[in-house]
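R.M. (postdoc): so does anyone remember the format we settled on? I'll just put the structure tokens first.
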């Protein structure tokens, strides 16, 4: 019985934190990010990455009045659903507040949706740099070295942006934020990960309020071709649908 009481107390405490998080985090975000109204490029590997992993970041940047562009390096054609998934991505981005004119989907053989294929770092970096320069980007957001799920395509994006950063090829004033990977336990305890996120976040933390969580779920629901039973569980349990902790390179 006492275990149930402790669990109920923890759940209630976590709920209160999340419920009030939006107002409490605004000033914290403002102090950590490089100013409001930046031009931000979200770099993802597949359609649904933007909702499955980065929804808190996209909606958090909207609070800061950032103009968000999205660059997706594949059409997600692993199961020959590329055309469907491109349409789903545009629908999801619309829910998240990213207009179609700000979405670029790369669909060619150089970047196949395949965890068994290693994308060429130099080629990815070249394409990425072109989009950064053309759109006047001053903040790039992508995966970290763990790729959140360990997918090789996610990790390839990190390797490319890391190379641009290390070699000094990014335009002056352009910063890079990477989404922190966490262990499996933390990944699937939903909002209960918030205390650990507050303790372990190095630079930027975005936490969604209840209204924004519903918005993130609507965005993920646009990816109807991907809503298998385990992804429905993911939507309910994953902390990435509610919390994003990020680090600057």
């Amino acid at each position: 019985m006492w275990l149930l009481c402790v669990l109920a107390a923890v759940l209630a405490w976590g709920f209160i934190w999340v419920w009030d998080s939006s107002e409490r985090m605004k000033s914290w975000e403002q102090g950590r990010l490089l100013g409001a109204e930046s031009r931000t490029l979200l770099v993802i590997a597949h359609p649904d990455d933007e909702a499955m992993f980065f929804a808190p970041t996209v909606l958090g940047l909207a609070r800061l009045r950032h103009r968000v562009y999205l660059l997706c390096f594949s059409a997600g054609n692993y199961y020959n659903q590329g055309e469907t998934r491109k349409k789903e991505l545009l629908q999801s981005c619309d829910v998240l507040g990213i207009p179609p004119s700000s979405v670029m989907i790369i669909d060619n053989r150089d970047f196949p949706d395949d965890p068994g294929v290693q994308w060429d770092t130099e080629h990815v970096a070249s394409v990425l740099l072109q989009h950064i320069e053309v759109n006047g980007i001053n903040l790039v957001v992508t995966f970290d070295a763990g790729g959140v799920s360990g997918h090789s395509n996610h990790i390839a994006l990190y390797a490319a942006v890391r190379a641009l950063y290390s070699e000094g090829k990014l335009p002056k004033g352009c910063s890079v934020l990477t989404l922190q990977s966490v262990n499996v336990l933390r990944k699937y305890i939903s909002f209960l990960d918030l205390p650990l996120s507050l303790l372990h976040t190095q630079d930027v933390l975005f936490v969604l309020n209840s209204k924004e969580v519903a918005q993130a779920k609507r965005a993920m629901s646009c990816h109807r071709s991907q809503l298998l039973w385990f992804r429905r569980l993911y939507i309910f349990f994953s902390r990435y649908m509610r919390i994003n902790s990020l680090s600057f390179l």
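R.M.: ...and that's the designed sequence above, right after the tokens. Also worth knowing: Residues 2-19 form the longest helix (18 residues). Confidence is low (pLDDT under 50) at residues 21-32.
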